[in-house]
Amino acid sequence: MNNDPQIRKTLTVSFSLAQDTAILCPSSYFLCPHYFNKPLPFYLEELTSLQFLEYRKNSRGVQLFTCKWLPVSDPIKALVFLCHGYGMECGTYMKECGEKLAGARYAVFGMDYEGHGRSEGLRGYIKKFEDIVNDCHEFYKSICELQEYKGKAKFLYGESMGGAVALLLHKKDPSLWDGAVLSAPMCKISDKVKPHPLVINILMKLEDIIPSWKIVPSNDHIESAFKDIAKRERIRKNKLIYQDKPRIKSGIEMLKASLSIEANLHEVTLPFIVLHGEADTITDPDVSRELYKQASSIDKTIKLYPGMWHCLTSGETDENIELVFADIIDWLDKRASKAGLESFQPKQTHNHGIDKLTPHEVNNRDAEQAGFPCHDSASPARHLSKL
């Protein structure tokens, strides 16, 4: 055990398991020190979060991998539910996200969709986008109903395709969620990566004939999503991530979901923050701007990061990743309590503005050209040196 306090602060207690393990330590709250009134061993004194891994069956009998990160210190501020992107997974790829949020005293829960990560199913295959939404809703709602979490605020956290999942979860049960963090959400497939309309038409005719074939034209999404070369190569080594071409049915289901969301952005009513790299070529930053403009939410914030790519919390430099997480946690902290949420529900509708992390003159010019107010006074100049 390394006793360097800077290293010990990032440790998590995790349980490794084989893919064929049915259940691992269900409801293992007794392992978390703030549920068990005993002092921590000296080598865990700097521990900030604990990770738990478990399998559960969905309503279709499919084994789905789930994970959670619990903060060591009391009290838990709120609950955060992760929705990962296409081909990605929670247990390893989103582990740092879980640790960061749990270290800030949030209880964090994630699930690998069917066909993703450690869950059962054909790799990278989405038979019905609705199945993903229903599986997440079933599992996440069961967590929300646990007695120990009664009265806690509940936030969705969606990255890329997971942003679409989060928005559809909100649409399915608007009263359940208190807010959402949307990182480069898939509200539309960028024209830069979307196949030609003729190709789409052909694929739609083939989706019921050869649905699982991997023939959807696409660029190397890892190459396009992860700006930091070292992090990009680390992602390539993660064999739980689907790295092949999208299957026909998967591509069509994602396209249909994004078109549906794009056409109904005005139906979004929950508080949200949308974050997007302006150099993103996977999901279009302009659609995040449209989400911000069209959403009926009273409490809505947008942050755009010049020069950053698609994977804001895992594919940028360490300095930029810290910047993005600081923005996310700051937004959550202000809304984690009932009083905090109510403070963002004024009698008169207002938006919290667009936070363009650029020098003041460029910020005002771009905001005016885009038709946005620039009201967010929390746009710290200190961020500029970090980009």
From TrEMBL:
Pfam families: Hydrolase_4. Transmembrane segments: none annotated. Residues 367-387 are annotated as: Disordered. InterPro entries: AB_hydrolase_1 (IPR000073), AB_hydrolase_fold (IPR029058), Hydrolase_4 (IPR022742), MAG_DAG_Lipase (IPR051044). It comes from the Eukaryota. SUPFAM superfamilies: alpha/beta-Hydrolases. Residues 75-315 form the Serine aminopeptidase S33 domain. This is Serine aminopeptidase S33 domain-containing protein. It comes from Crotalaria pallida (Smooth rattlebox).
